[in-house]
Every structure is written in C-alpha cells, then in structure tokens.
C-alpha cells in the first residue's frame, strides 16, 4: 500500500506553480530508484512490506518484521537504496539530475529519524550498546542534527516539520517498540551465536542470546521474560 504524506502534495504544488516541474519530476525519479533498491533487497531477504509512505524528500518503507531482526540483513536493505541511487546517477550522468541526486543522497545519510543515515547509525549502535539506550541516543542525535538542514526556505521548513513529526512519533512509540522487542525474545526463541550475561532486563541487545541474572542465578531470556510478565 502506497500512502502520500499531505506535505508531499503541498511541496508538489509549490514546485509546479513556481516553474520547478522538471526538478520535481527528476526528484521523484530519483526517489523511485532509491526506494526500489530497498525493495529489491528486502524481497531477497523475504522481509514483509506493510506500506510505503511518500514524503516531500523521499519515501519511507514500513516493514512488518521483528524489531530484533538480523542486523546484517537490515544493513544491506538500508544501504541498497543509496547504492542503487548512486549507480543510476553515475550511469545517466546528467548535470541537473546529478546535482539533485547528490543533494538528496547527502541529506538522506544524515543521522536524523527516519532517514537512512539514522538507520545505519542505529545498526552501528546496536552492535555495541543495548537496545534501550541506543534508541534514546539515536533520537537525541536526530534532534542535534536538525539545525544542519535549516534554511529560510518554505520547502525546507516543511521538510523539517515532517522530520520533527517523525522524531516525536518515535519518542511516543518507544515503549511499544521496546515491549515488542522484549516479547520477541520469548515468542521466537531464536538462538544467536553471541551470548551475553546481563543483570537487568533493560540491558537486552539485538541479535544476542541473553542469560539474565536474578537472585544470584542466571536464567535463559525466554524463561526470565515469561516469569517477568507473569509477575506483572
């Protein structure tokens, strides 16, 4: 299912009325190529796509997948969009298209939710920091980097509004996402090669099997989580 964000229509209308139709068409072409890269690799790894949201500055693919999915798969799906965009840009070699594409590429790699740069940063953080803390760090960095794209330009302001909205939504969804992440550990019972001993259920890592300490004894994560939720 493809959904067009309301701000997309506003930006589109502004571009058409101000004589930037060609730039708008080329931008949408680049966005299509970019999202196609994500879709192709996600299909290879059999990730389920819930919906695609078209934003003023690109697209946002919502996957119906586990939070604790394979980090390597997530990295390859995330990087495939920018890579295909770069390859097509180099092959076409049109000056106007190149300028638009490289601008979008740099913008998209900023560590701001929900851009690809934030997803790559999140994957990196998840390798070394527990899920709960890495999530907060990602949102704080997103806020810090917002001023880097600010210019006194109406379309840029609309884009910033859209990004702020996504960051706020991510803050609001934090508890839901984290609880989903914990429950997945119990429901799917996936055994990862990496095993980590922790003292608190709030220190769970992605792509890791945990032994959680309780009263001087370590329990497998699914056993501990089941007991944890049953005691609530």
Features:
single chain, 232 residues, alpha/beta, three-stranded mixed sheet, 62% helix, elongated
Structural account:
There is one protein chain. This protein has two domains: about 1-170, no CATH class; about 190-230, no CATH class. About 60% of the residues lie in helices and about 15% in strands. The protein has helices at about 5-15, 20-45, 70-90, 95-110, 115-130, 130-145, 155-170, 175-185, 220-230, and strands spanning about 1-5, 50-55, 60-65, 195-200, 210-215, 215-220. The radius of gyration is 20 Å and the shape is elongated.
Task: Describe what is shown at a glance.
By secondary structure, the chain is of the alpha/beta class. It has helices at 6-17, 21-44, 71-92, 95-108, 116-128, 131-145, 154-172, 174-187, 221-230; strands at 2-4, 49-55, 58-63, 195-198, 209-214, 217-220.
Query: pLDDT under 50 segments (min length 5)?
Result: none
Distance between the termini: 37 Å
SSE pattern: EHHEEHHHHHHEEEH
Q: Choose one word for the global shape.
A: elongated
Main pleated sheet: 3 strands, mixed
Spatial arrangement of strands, main beta sheet: 1-2-3
The count of domains is 2
Strand content: 5-15%
SS class: alpha/beta
The DSSP helix count reads 9
Query: Total strand count, please?
Result: 6
Helix content: 55-70%
The radius of gyration computed from the alpha-carbon positions, rounded to a whole number of angstroms, is 20 Å
User: For the residues shown, what is the average pLDDT?
Assistant: 88
């Amino acid at each position: 299912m493809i959904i067009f964000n309301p701000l997309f229509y506003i930006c589109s209308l502004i571009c058409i009325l101000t004589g930037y139709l060609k730039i708008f068409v080329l931008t949408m072409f680049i966005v299509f190529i970019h999202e196609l890269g994500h879709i192709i690799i996600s299909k290879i790894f059999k990730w389920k796509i819930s919906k695609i949201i078209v934003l003023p500055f690109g697209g946002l693919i919502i996957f119906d997948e586990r939070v604790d999915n394979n980090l390597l798969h997530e990295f390859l799906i995330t990087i495939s969009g920018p890579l295909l965009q770069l390859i097509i840009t180099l092959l076409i070699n049109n000056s106007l298209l190149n300028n638009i594409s490289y601008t979008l590429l740099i913008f998209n790699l900023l560590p701001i939710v929900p851009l690809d740069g934030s997803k790559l940063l999140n994957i990196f953080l998840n390798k070394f920091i527990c899920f709960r803390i890495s999530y907060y760090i990602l949102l704080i960095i997103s806020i810090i980097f917002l001023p880097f794209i600010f210019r006194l330009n109406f379309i840029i302001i609309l884009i910033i509004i859209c990004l702020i909205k996504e960051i706020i939504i991510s803050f609001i969804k934090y508890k839901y996402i984290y609880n989903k992440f914990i429950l997945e550990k119990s429901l799917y019972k996936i055994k990862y090669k990496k095993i980590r001993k922790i003292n608190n259920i709030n220190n769970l890592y992605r792509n890791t099997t945990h032994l959680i300490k309780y009263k001087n004894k370590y329990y497998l994560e699914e056993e501990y989580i089941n007991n944890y939720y049953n005691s609530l």
